[in-house]
Specification:
Elements (H helix, E strand, L loop, with lengths): L5 H14 L4 H9 L5 H8 L6 E3 L19 E8 L2 E8 L10 H17 L3 E5 L10 H16 L6 E5 L2 E3 L4 H4 L3 E5 L4 E3 L3 H8 L5 H5 L1 H6 L6 E3 L2 H12 L40 H8 L6 E3 L7 E8 L2 E8 L10 H16 L4 E7 L6 H6 L1 H14 L4 E10 H6 L9 E4 L4 E3 L3 H15 L3 H15 L3 H6 L5 E2 L5 H12 L17
Parallel strand pairs: 3-4, 4-5, 5-7, 6-8, 7-9, 12-13, 13-14, 14-15, 14-16, 15-17
Antiparallel strand pairs: 1-2, 2-3, 10-11, 11-12
Length: 514
């Protein structure tokens, strides 16, 4: 038997040491918490045997050799998801609690640079105690380098953050700059200042879960896009989300196989919208009925529930879905809903994903609080986003499209390519009751039977203005369609405008209201 070259023996020992993280006792503690190690997570995320590690022997500088831990608390490299290249980094909590230092940050920046240079998504698995205090300003500089790349590569390659443990302090700004944030219930935490600091400074008492847990960020802050019950499901969800997205900003989203008939009619939609304009119905039901079956992936589902955003497919084509939910606050647009809509429009536009918008909103939420908090500024974000977006855009007015809500929600003159309306659509400056008060207030005040006169005047207003045909006569909608044929109409339109090319005036960048 040939003797093994001692240099090869050393290499094998180094590899084994690097893969051992912080040691078996630390790994056992990680497992005892119900958490996977960084390498176990990568095995589940990536295609089998596809992972190639980069810089596994990097260590914290100026550390005695017998104390240095290979990898410096983060595993970096690249692999494939469904055969497509993806760059990854996974913070290793078994090494100094995954705390970030100079070399740790350099490794992350390295794979971020490679992902952008090669036009492939970057996925970060975050599980860290924060900045490495003993490295002082070098840790802060390391975070700044990551943040800068998050910003510079935004809209260049998809960036996905999977929070699998703590993400506290300044570290939270990195995922906040990425496209999609996924959290795990009872395990993921994000906050700028922890419970103890808050108690000291403000006197408020809270805990990790109540302050920055997954449910809080899905339903209250709107920071998280998706949450899951466990790590395994979260890692599978990352793979699923990547299937909707292109590798970069110059590619189109992948076309999926669809077993759903593109000519399928949704007969239930013909009787979905109540005759009474004040009665609610479910826009979720509309969306599920027209997209490829089972393809709707709702984002930020618990936040600003009066608006609906997400990704879906029509005949295998990825689209962004935007809508109001008339069963929540009558579908009115408030500050939070405006931010939610705007962010999704810009995500889709950045990655060549067509926009399909379903409109049913009586307008923007009135009130002193909304006005003082800047509903004008926040509503203008939606207007700006739709106007700036040059991807294919289709809108369907299902019922109310009043005033500013009509204008900002992908109206024809913001550059929307195809505009449809259902027979139930009401496109006008305002509803019949408000319009009658303004137009005929004095007349009604003097009327002998104001109730009967009001009913007559409101009916006349509805007949003249609150009809999709009035908008169609003037060219504000392209066609009034039967609800059942919505799926077929959208698919036909998407095919017709899929090669759309539209350029805006040359500029450094616009000044979006933020």
């Amino acid at each position: 038997m040939t003797d093994i070259d001692p240099r090869i023996e050393v290499l094998r020992e180094m590899r084994a040491k690097a893969q051992g993280g912080g040691g078996q006792d630390k790994i056992d503690r990680q497992h005892a918490k119900g958490k996977l190690t960084a390498r176990e997570r990568l095995d589940l995320l990536l295609d089998k045997d596809s992972f190639t590690e980069l810089e596994p022997f990097v260590v914290q500088q100026n550390t005695p050799e017998d104390e240095a831990l290979l990898g410096d608390g983060v595993v970096t490299g690249y692999g494939t998801v469904d055969g497509r290249t993806v760059y990854v980094y996974a913070q290793d909590f078994t090494v100094m609690g995954g705390a970030l230092g100079e070399m740790h940050s350099r490794k992350i920046c390295r794979v971020m640079d490679l992902s952008a240079a090669n036009g492939s998504p970057i996925v970060g698995l975050i599980d860290s105690g924060g900045a490495r205090i003993q490295e002082g300003v070098k840790s802060l500089g390391g975070y700044a380098e990551i943040f800068k790349r998050n910003a510079q590569y935004s809209g260049v390659v998809p960036q996905i953050s999977l929070i699998l443990g703590p993400c506290a302090g300044g570290a939270a700004y990195s995922p906040a700059l990425t496209d999609i944030i996924i959290m795990v219930e009872k395990q993921s935490f994000m906050f700028l200042t922890g419970p103890q600091v808050i108690k000291t400074v403000t006197g408020e008492e809270t805990d990790f879960e109540s302050l920055g847990g997954a449910q809080v960020h899905l339903n209250v802050s709107g920071t998280a896009h998706l949450i899951t019950k466990d790590e395994e499901t979260a890692l599978a969800l990352v793979r699923y989300v990547l299937g909707y997205l292109p590798a970069n900003n110059v590619e189109n989203p992948p076309l999926a196989d669809s077993a759903d008939d593109p000519d399928r009619l949704a007969e239930s939609l013909n009787s979905l919208v109540p005759m009474d304009p004040g009665m609610p119905y479910s826009m979720h039901e509309v969306i599920e009925a027209v997209v490829d079956r089972g393809s709707f992936l709702e984002l930020q589902a618990g936040y600003a529930r009066n608006a609906i955003v997400g990704l879906a497919r029509f005949d295998g084509m990825t689209v962004g879905i935007l809508a109001q939910e008339p069963s929540v606050m009558a579908g009115v647009i408030d500050i939070d809903a405006a931010d939610k809509l705007c962010r999704t429009v810009r995500l889709c536009d950045a990655f060549n994903i067509p926009l399909v918008t379903f409109v049913d909103s009586p307008g923007f939420l009135p009130g002193v609080g909304q006005e003082h908090r800047g509903i004008i500024r926040h509503g203008a974000k939606v207007l700006y986003a739709y106007s700036e977006a040059n991807v294919p855009k289709i809108s369907v007015v299902t019922r109310k499209a009043y005033g500013g809500a009509y204008v900002v929600m992908s109206s024809k003159y913001l550059g929307t390519d195809i505009n449809y309306a259902w027979p139930s659509a009401e496109i006008a400056v305002m509803g019949a009751e408000g319009a009658t008060n303004i137009l005929h207030g004095r007349e009604l005040a003097k009327a002998e039977d104001p109730k009967a006169d009001r009913a007559r005047l409101e009916a006349e207003y509805r007949q003249r203005y609150l009809t999709p045909y009035a908008a169609a006569y003037a060219g504000y909608v392209d066609e009034v369609i039967e609800p059942a044929e919505t799926r077929r109409k959208i698919i036909t339109a998407l095919r017709a405008i899929q090669h759309k090319s539209e350029r805006h005036p040359s500029r450094k960048h616009g000044n979006m209201p933020v």
